[in-house]
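Anyone have tokens for Na(+)/H(+) antiporter NhaA? Sequence:
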Amino acid sequence: MSTDTQTSSGSGGSFTNFLRRDTTGGLFLLIAMVLALVIANSPWGEVYFGLRDTEVGPSVAGLQHTVGHWASDGLLAIFFFLTGLELKTEFVDGELHNIRKAILPVVAACGGVLVPALIFLGVNLAAGSERTALHGWAIPTATDIAFAVSVLAVVGSSLPVAMRTFLLTLAVVDDLIAIAIIAFVYTESVNFPFLGGAAVLLALYWFLTHKFMGWFMARHWTAWVILLPIGVVTWWLVYESGIHATIAGVLLGFMVPVLKQKPRIIRQEDPRMGLAPALEHRFRPLSNGFVIPVFAFFSAGVAVGGWDGVTSAATDPVALGIVAGLLLGKPIGIFGAAWLMDRFTSAEKDRDYTWFDMFGMTIVAGIGFTVSLLVGELSFGEGSPHGDHAKVGILCGSLLAALIGGTLVATRNKKYKAMRTAGHDPDTLD
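Reply: yep, here.
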């Protein structure tokens, strides 16, 4: 969803700009995932799990948690803050602002959530799984933005812009649904006094960012000294309220102002663009370079246990349901919903790309990593048999979706590259 790939070298150093790219987050995520799997299944496995389960933080105010818990509940809030900024931008001045233009990918995203969930439940009910296994129904419903966009950026450099727009809009809505699921399904009880305190601080955050937007834009230090402490306390209040703390990041992102009809390419922090793109510009390197890989490193590590462990995961309906949901449910749900909308309503698929092109993208959308791992932890807990098998299912399903979808998209990319070489612009076919 970000425009980071278009950022010029005139805004920050070359390494910082590298960290802002769409592909960087996916690359670091993949490296961290592989590293975690290798270490967890090596003689260093005990060191890895010992580090992940080490408790850090002050014991007061309930802030002493394991390193893994801090990665998923603390650091990941930064990732979701950027998600909130992107969602706000899309609603105010993006693809989701024009409902007629957005309706097809919006409905397709809903299909891409519903069908994987039904497939997961179907697999587990058919296998006679115990009731606790059904708690993971939401795991295969998520699409990993960073990873999916990275695949499209790496293998689809010549694709029509409309294809990337479709996938980004799909990912935006998918994220919104995933956030709602986390907030309403995985919240057991709510402490309303803490939630009320968070609401007060959110209102203060909204007031400051709207009333003094130019001040925060002109003086970078003010965001760190004023907005960051408010954000941290809001995060703590949401955490203590019983709602998953990452929701605080999304809500804070939604409080930041977005200006309409301004340049979408963030080449420098221009006050005309508003505070939302400026904060995204500042925080994106932190998210791509640190937050995403650290979360992936401490979440993806699972001791497979050799061939017996692989067999155990491969025969667990939880893992099978996740793989089937990601690899089959996502393309069936997304493609089916999009085709029905195009066939029976006034909504239309963009003519710049074909239905086969869309099919490749729907498989890429089956890459469910970051949010899927988070939902897996919320569903089964860290270190439980179903939790470990769910991670194996997420990794296998996401890897297969990346390989198969990436191959299909790369094949189509050759066609569009040849068209551009011949002087035909695929972005003007509509």
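The longest strand covers residues 55-56.
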